[in-house]
Amino acid sequence: MTLLLEEPTAENDQKAQLLFKEARRRRRRLRIMWMAVGAIVFVVFVGLGLTLHRSSSPPSSSVGATAHPVWPPHLRTGATLVYALNDVRILDADSGATQVLPMPALYGGSRDLAMVTVGRSFLLNRGDTAWLYSEGNNRKPVDLGPSDGVFRGPNSNEAWVWTQPCAPILGCTNYNAPQMGSVHLVDGAGRQIGAAVALPGEDGWYPTGVAGHAGMVLQQQPPYGNHGNQQEIWNPLTDRVVHVFANAYVLGAGGNAVVWETAAPYCRTNCPLHVLNALNGSERTVRLPSGVTATGDVAISPDGRTIAVTAALGYASRIPDPQGVLLIGPRTQVAKMLTGSERLTNPNLGPMSLIWSTNGWLFSSTVGMTTVEAWRPGASQARVLPKLRLPEFTLVNEDPSLIAF
């Protein structure tokens, strides 16, 4: 629904700009907020908690804490990670070898830092511009022009770039525009494929960043004071809305699978996850273990058989609530905790994020920590990569981005 203002002013435009960015981040910030509160309680009671832990057995739980397992010396992932924040780093997951590349734009702009793979190349969204890093040892960023977001394309060798009309004052977001811009496809060489396609409707639908084979997820910007969350899957190739979600959060997509949960206040506790097959419209419900809450990051394996979900383990006897990774298989009815994936929270840490490599390894990292955990289907537990370490940094109003090949 378009936001109508009489005699728009610079101040109103700026308020609208902040609302737009906050709509994408509000859910993540709420999660971080309650995890930080739990951490503060932990600091107050840490002495008592340690005493009780040493004098009694831990509570029985199906998702109990586990020690970090040792990485077998013969095990190799064969994966390459790319990390971006203050600079861009190409990381060998096994040896820890690092190649530092220049960051083409400074922090700022109206959109979040993000990366997406395109074949063996990758796109970086930074400073309201899309940058292409081509395959090869001498990766030099190429300016692909204005960008408000880069998203996964309909296949692994293509990616979507979103641009929208610019406001004269703010330069990047125009809430009085008839629609929220357009998207166009690019390949691994940065070449545009076909013509740009305008986003549908005239009522403020914009991309959330989640995309899969069926299309990309759009969210409607709500009027001031409206906390509803209306989302839909739109396929730019056919310019058709494939599926509509009412009061829902779409958490992730991969292939034809789309994972979503009911938005608050329509569900607040023990909320299950829903897995939609966008190809045939079938859907199944997956319950979470008792006391576990999905926290918003979902990654689907390249073969589409395994869904990984970040979660908070909310037991009152275990403060602060740890984060962990839930696994959902093709016929799973109750998600299972990945052994070895638990990480404690504290006020200096952000959310946990997940990424699959093209050869089928799952990597998890927590914002503010330097370690990365790895797991592949069939293994009994996740393990910390022994040689790879991410850069240390001071938290800012922007999270790092991590992708894998």
Structure in words:
By secondary structure, the chain is mainly beta. It has a single domain (10-404), classed as Methylamine Dehydrogenase, Chain H, CATH 2.130.10. Helices cover 11% and strands 37% of the residues. A four-stranded antiparallel sheet has the order 3-2-1-28, with no helix packed on it. Strands 4-5-6-7 form a four-stranded antiparallel sheet, with no helix packed on it. The protein has a four-stranded antiparallel sheet with strand order 8-9-10-11, with no helix packed on it. Strand 12 and strand 13 (215-220) form a beta hairpin.
Sequence of secondary-structure elements: HHEEEEEEEEEEEEEEEEEEEEEEEEEEEE
Number of helices: 2
Query: What's the total number of strands?
Result: 28
Helix content: 10-25%
Q: What characteristic shape results from the CA principal axes?
A: globular
Secondary structure class reads mainly beta
Into which percentage range does the β-strand content fall? 35-45%
- Assembly type of the chains comes to single chain
